[in-house]
Design brief:
CATH topology: Anthranilate synthase
CATH architecture: 4-Layer Sandwich
Number of strands: 18
Strand content: 25-35%
Shape: globular
Order of helices and strands: HEEEEEHEHEEEEEHHEEHEHEEEEH
Radius of gyration: 19 Å
Structural class: alpha+beta
CATH class: Alpha Beta
Length: 316
């Protein structure tokens, strides 16, 4: 059965499942929770299939090799070319950083304190802080995250909130996600705009800004759950705007498929749905993937620094 139809059927029958989608939507995989393979381990904000679920008290240190500045510069300049030409007005640009890690992925999975941790053996591990969509009691919510800074006290929140480039980027993504939700729900509204949170990692604290957008679903949405999910993909916060055209630009600029990086993982408990964007991500070749939004106001050095700031493992 085609995967979208399978998700529709599981939603209609109230069968719990987990679904992983890649950024290019070329290799989605889904399993009923009753038959989830050992190769896939997850923790969706406390809901996990890891029977041991033992927290490891460790402080992993990542030996980070610098991102190739010239490579990133070339991507940045190509992004600016398209932005200045009007092909896009926000491009999510990503790159990869080679790391050496003293812990294996199983240890990292058990040590992570991120909101979401997804580990697909032989592929990747993701320590995602970003909820994509949640569905509870017929209400769909999305939480676009745009704006990151190394948190060093109250001044960091003020600095990030007052940054004009970050304000513009966040407003663009909120508008994009509001439009996306309007395609699957009604009475869409922004409930909380640009709220600040602090994430704790093994080496530093990260400040980030998110918003909350909600809509009301039709009563029979469970039987159309697969259509609903795939209508929203890929996640707007890691694409840009306009979304379809910018996705094509990303393929040109980055020069290689992202795969499961910046895809989405979904957890359905038979009634409600939770999901996360697959960011804060280490691939099987031990490259740490990170990125950020590029606008015409972006500065090369600042975007390069943001890319490096996002290379961390969230454990305390």
């Amino acid at each position: 059965m085609e995967i979208k139809a399978q998700i529709n059927q599981w939603g209609k029958e109230g069968i719990p499942f987990v679904l992983l989608t890649d950024f290019e939507l070329q290799k989605p995989i889904a399993y009923p929770l009753s038959n989830c393979p050992e190769e896939l381990k997850f923790n969706f904000d406390g809901k996990t299939n890891d029977a041991s679920n033992r927290s490891l008290s460790i402080q992993p240190k990542l030996e980070v090799e610098s991102v190739d500045f010239d490579r990133f510069k070339n991507k940045f300049e190509l992004s600016q070319k398209h932005l200045n030409r009007g092909d896009s007005y926000l491009i999510n640009l990503t790159d990869k950083t080679r790391i050496k890690n003293e812990l294996n992925f199983e240890q990292l999975f058990k040590a992570s304190n991120s909101k979401y941790t997804i580990w697909l053996k032989g592929e990747f591990i993701s320590f995602s802080p970003e909820t994509f969509v949640r569905i509870q009691n017929g209400i769909i919510s999305t939480f676009p995250m745009k704006g990151t800074i190394e948190h060093q006290g109250a001044s960091s929140e003020k600095e990030l909130k007052n940054n004009l480039k970050e304000q513009s980027e966040h407003a663009t993504v909120v508008d994009l996600l509001r439009n996306d939700l309007s395609s699957v729900s009604k009475r869409v509204r922004v409930e909380n705009y640009r709220y600040y949170e602090v994430l704790h990692t093994s080496e530093k604290q990260i400040g980030q800004i998110s918003s909350k957008i909600t809509g009301i679903l039709q009563d029979d949405y469970h039987s159309k759950l697969g259509d609903l999910i795939f209508n929203l993909l890929p996640a707007g916060s890691i694409c840009g705007a306009p979304k379809d055209k910018t996705v094509r630009l990303i393929a040109e600029i980055e020069g290689e498929p992202r795969g499961y990086y910046t895809g989405v993982a979904f957890y359905f408990d038979g009634t409600d749905l939770d999901s996360c964007v697959l960011i804060r991500y280490i691939d099987k070749d031990h490259y740490y993937r990170s990125g950020g939004g590029i606008t015409f106001m972006s500065k090369l050095e600042e975007e390069y620094q943001e890319l490096k700031n996002k290379v961390y493992v969230p454990v305390v």
